[in-house]
Amino acid sequence: MRYESITEAIGNTPLVRIDPAVHGLRHIDLYAKLELLNPFGSVKDRAAWNMARPGLAAAAEHGSQVVELSSGNTAKALAVIAGMHGLPFKSVTNRMRIPEIKDLLLLLGADIEELPGQSECLDPTNTEDPLTLFHRELSEPGSSYLHTDQYFNPRNTEAHATGTGPEIVKDLDGRAPDWFVACVGTAGSSTGVARVLREHDPRVQVVGLVAAKSDFIPGIRTLDEVHEVGLFDPATYDTVESVTSDEAIEGMLTLARRCGILAGPTGGAAYFGTVRHLRSLEARLTEDQQTDPGVRRSAVFIVCDRIESYLSYTRRRRPDLFRLPPRRNDPADLTDAEVAAAPAVDTPDAQKWIERDRPLVVDLRSPFAYAALHIEGAINIVDELFDELVRGGLPFSTRQPVLLVCPVGEQSARYAALLTRMGHPDVRSLTGGVIAWRDAGAPLVRD
Amino acid sequence: MPSSPEPLSLEPRLDVRLASLLGAGDFLPSLVDALGSPLNVLLPDQIAENAARFRAAYGTHRLGGQVYFAHKANRSSALLRRLAATDAAVDVASLGELQHALGAGFVPDRIMATGPKNREFLWLAARTGVTVHADSAGELDELAALVRAHQLARIRVLVRLSAFDGPGVKVLTRPSRFGTPAGELDPLLKTVERHADVLELTGVGYHLDTTSAEEKARALEGCVRALDVCRGRGLRPRAVDIGGGFGVNYLAHAAQWERYTSELTAAVLGHRPPLTWRGHGYGLRNDAGTLRGALGLYPAHRPVAGARYLDELLALPAASFGGRSLATLLLENLYDLYTEPGRALVDQCGLVLARVLEVRRTDGGEPLVRLAMKADDAGLEEHGVLMDPVLLGRDGTRAVAGDGPAAGVYLAGSLCLEADLITRRMVFLPRLPRPGELLAFVNTAGYCMDFQTSRAQHQPVARKVAAWQEDGSWRWCLDEQYWPITRPGGEP
Description:
Shape of chain A: elongated
Strand content of chain B: 15-25%
Helix content of chain A: 40-55%
Oligomer: heterodimer
Shape of chain B: globular
Helix content of chain B: 25-40%
């Protein structure tokens, strides 16, 4: 396999059989179409390339910016394609809730503009939603944009009607599967693939999966939101079912841990939704088997993208999956009594103590706050760093007295208790913290 | 017959006090008999409880500062006087509101003047020594001139900023006509410094019309950066005012809201019969089978609202300050937090009662209920708040599911105008109402009760009463007669 350009590596993704021991379906061969193996990491590579390609030469000539309303994978692919052709790329969205993807887009050089949230005070005279304004900006005279318009562009669907769909038929030895299951985002892949499969065999059942309302699965729309998509046609789907984010993560774990397929939550949702749908049909298939033994059915679902971008998404929903080993010298292990007994000193006494014994004053606040105002002579070790330091042992000599300072004297009391437990003979917490220090009229400096 | 085969109810959320009031037998009907329809009933004890919840959210994050009730949300004296007996404060947006707050017992330390201001308003603010939240450099100039001309004491000011820029992605915040762009901080501070003899800058603030906590977080970070610039120039500000917009959860069940909005979408697309008067789409429209526009409704079911929204906002990471929480950012930099909740502070604080005058059917066969009130007496439609009213029988018994066949009805007002519908949505009641019965629009104290109300066509404006519980029963007095000390067991 030798290519002239990375874009030639788009498509021709593998169709991999899922081990029946994993899904437990007795009469159906289940296949995953591994769109995660596209070069930029997702099924959107196909649509992005197909939509952008015809306009690239003209865009390069006019120095146009490539723009798209995208929260993730389409933006990722377009950012790469735009970059390869020397064009800037801008993604406009209010749905970009995956921090890793946002960071990756910035890394790729994309501009991101976030649409404002819903209005709190309703303004009945305001008839223009942000999307209308976006479209108006695109069509202003003199503006120079290559707008790929994925929710309405027929070349989105076409990428799958000429690529994804025929590949599935070819890999099933010229046959369409009995079921095709796809999550609905722009509806491009499901519509394009469904069209091709039905041309081969009108009996193919198409299942569209959407996110449960008020739930969030990246790249999938909810039942209401799909109606905002120009490419969405209810007639494409024999049935539309919803999946929750918990189920998507469950499916994702099964694919990753048991099948070696490092799919993201969208692929997980597709797997979960597929198996749930097909399991409900098993009884009928068992009857068919009795009249026509040996008949096997097949189903294909799409694995849209990869797991790596969704670690924080998953951590937020399933913290149990990210268990951490027990830590040494953890302030969380202190009892309330230990914290209450922590050596402390109030502002007037602290001022005298500093004058007399010159304790090391450690300010646990952030560098920004420390730089703004602090006790003269204090050093700044931000609490997160201090946490790391004490895990390895005492960070100062036991002969050096220490005054710990935080905003209100709570954190400093915990650390004073911890350091005392670790064997420091003279560590004290500033009672009431730097706020009490200020309120007592004691000096703070900014240097 | 109702065009909906099954009721698409939007049951209002009722906390203990409001629920108890609605279950108080003939208490409410006798009030309407005496004082007429429509009638506004307010629960002053609830606002004190709500203020305490906000204060608790401050406590969770160890933050000091002040909770300012945005007075414009409701004109009631009882609410204001009850609040004056707590440790909360008030923000006033007009001369009349300032006079009201002073008269209700708020000392100037607990009042902030905000919003667009005329000279009289500015003068009384400066005269009495309340804090002025200034919108622009021009307003600071005007205030300084007043203070000098009348030889008044130096006055505390906050400045309102807008259009915050931050690192990372650009956020397209809805443009506001209020505040000074954060990028023009330098000329603004030059104005403050020029008037240093008469103006003392005590903080900066923002007010964003959005439900997005991320947008507010960015603005808050921008305020902290601006305050640091102030400190660098030798000013000594100590507060960030994050305004209001904490929201109210109006509905009892998330599932009803989700189902209703889905069905509304289907109705707009023509997949089901209309749910609204003449197929009104609340901002949605059908564009060749594709849904266009945006739903112009208040997000009536909000799992996180009020003090909990504040709590979650304060716990968000301050992205441009290394990801420590916003509360930590404020705390570490020794800043007080000011909030200006309006709607959220009067959540569950009152209801609007209206008498049913007539029940008939429209040409289309739908029940039309005419009420002794106008649409502006309960501005639910104006503020995009959708919820069903509660039906009270003549003896005050609350109608419940099973009392009869559920009824989808349209509610018409008493004005001689086609447009005078209390709500354009078909509302669902446990049974068809009868003339003489009452409909209670609950939880209307925030903006919906008297914000829009008018005397059009010489129709009466609703009287206001305050109600409270004492020894297990409900007591009341006229709103203007209420003082917290008149209640045995009240705060000293």
